[in-house]
Amino acid sequence: MRILIAEDDEALARFVRQGLEGEHYSVDVLPDGEQARTAATEFEYDVVILDLNLPKLDGVSVLRYLRSKKPSLPVLVLTQRTRVEDRVQCLDTGADDYVPKQLSSTSLDILHIRSDLIAKLRAAAQSRNSHPGDVLSKKPPRSARSETLSAAFPSVPAIVALGTSTGGPRALQEILPLFPRDLAVPILIVQHMPPGFTAPFAQRLNTLCSVTVREATHGECPQPGVVYIAPAGLHMRVERQADSRAIIFLDTHPEDYLHIPSIDVLMTSVAESFGNLALGVIMTGMGSDGAAGMQAIHRQGGLTIGQNEATCTVYGMPRACAELGILTRVVPLSQIPAEILQATRYRKRA
Questions:
Q1: 325 or 139: whose pLDDT is higher?
Q2: Cα–Cα distance between 220 and 341 in angstroms, integer?
Q3: Which end of the chain has fewer CB atoms surrounding its CB within 10 Å, N or C?
Q4: Which one of 86, 97, 165, 259 is the catalytic residue?
Q5: pLDDT for res 153
Q6: What's the confidence (pLDDT) of residue 52?
Q7: Does the annotation count 298 as an active-site position?
């Protein structure tokens, strides 16, 4: 791959460059937004790594320009010193993924994050060709298979736990607007994102959706028709009280997980609290987070849905579940809302 790094911090740029060149990638580094915009437009790069805080032209403006001129060019955004407004604009403009900017000669060894960064680079490079013909309708989805699903799973799910990672922000912005306002269940989501992004992401989704979307808060009761996004840096779990009320708990334990929040932590708690009334959905993402949680839901007799390979940006997490044989359904991204509505016996009000 040929990679462009737009970064004005010389030590950081050198650190990342050395790590990538160690993998035999061709790397160019430019220190300001104007040079980056010109180079990315005139030359052919496989991926651009873009700091949002650049001199002469800020990263958000560069990203917006590249999306208009080269919409298929993958862009990874370096995050740290970004304003909330920049994060929202970055999400709106459509960055492919986010790389935490705790990258300096004093705070991080490039060897420690090399595998994650390289995986994100490869995923971003592949992502623009990973949705062959999966066009989403703007109308609420319907399917003729609802009777079959009802017969196979007579228990109606009371809660949905959904996990996603690389490619998830774009996928969620495609499917969540398809859910009706009167959805009969809450949806709890773990999306792997850097700190500071989940709140503006939830706010962005809320403007697009009929259902309410917000970042989850500790101690609240999940309500039907509401989508809860787990805050970055905190595990989200659900516990049912003696009076059968469900409560959302947010904390940092256990701390030894690769991802915080962890999809496994959420789904395992949902399986323990709701048994066969749980519905798990695993979507695009690297690695295997969610496999143990989906297995717990499947073991309890709950419904499990996986996104198919053709419509995943990265078919990692769904593949891990498919290989365990624990997916009740494997469907394209566009069909996931229909599956959830069928499972919850949704009927449009007259």
A1: 325
A2: 24
A3: C
A4: 165
A5: 62
A6: 82
A7: no
Distances (CA, A) of 81 to 65, 78, 108, 197, 201: 21, 9, 17, 12, 17
**Contact by Cβ (8 Å): 332, 134:** yes
Look at residue 206 and give its three-state secondary structure: helix
The tens digit of pLDDT for each residue in 279-299 reads 999 999 888 999 999 999 999
DSSP-assigned letters across all residues of 215-255: E--TTPPP-TTEEEEPPTTSEEEEEE-TTS-EEEEEE--ST
133 band by pLDDT with thresholds 50, 70 and 90: very low
Q: Check 51, 86, 97, 289 and give the catalytic one.
A: 289
81 against 115, higher pLDDT: 115
Q: Which residues pair with 225 in a beta bridge?
A: none
Owner of token pair 């595990």 = 235
Q: Helix, strand, coil: what percent of the chain each, to 5?
A: 40, 20, 40
**Cβ of 95: how many Cβ atoms within 10 Å?**
27
- Asked about 192 being catalytic, the answer comes back as yes
Catalytic residue status for 165? yes
Exposed/middle/buried for 148, CB within 10 Å: 0-12, 13-18, 19+?
exposed
d(CA 245, CA 241): 5
With a CB cutoff of 8 Å and minimum separation 6, the contacts of 277 are: 155, 156, 157, 158, 159, 302
Which residue pairs from 243-248 have beta carbons closer than 8 angstroms and sit at least 24 positions apart in sequence? Answer: 245/221, 246/159, 246/221, 246/222, 246/273, 246/274, 247/219, 247/220, 247/221, 248/188, 248/216, 248/217, 248/218, 248/219, 248/220, 248/221, 248/222
Residue 29: partners with Cβ closer than 8 Å, 6 or more residues away: 4, 5, 7, 13, 14, 17
Q: What mean pLDDT do residues 210-226 have? A: 97
Cβ proximity of 189 and 215 under 8 Å: no
Are β-strands 97-100 and 75-79 bridged in parallel, bridged antiparallel, or unpaired? parallel
Q: How many CB atoms lie within 10 A of CB 130?
A: 17
CA angle 265, 267, 269 (to 5 degrees): 70
Domains of the chain: 2-127 (3.40.50.2300), 146-343 (3.40.50.180)
- In the numeric block, which tokens belong to residue 179? 């859910």
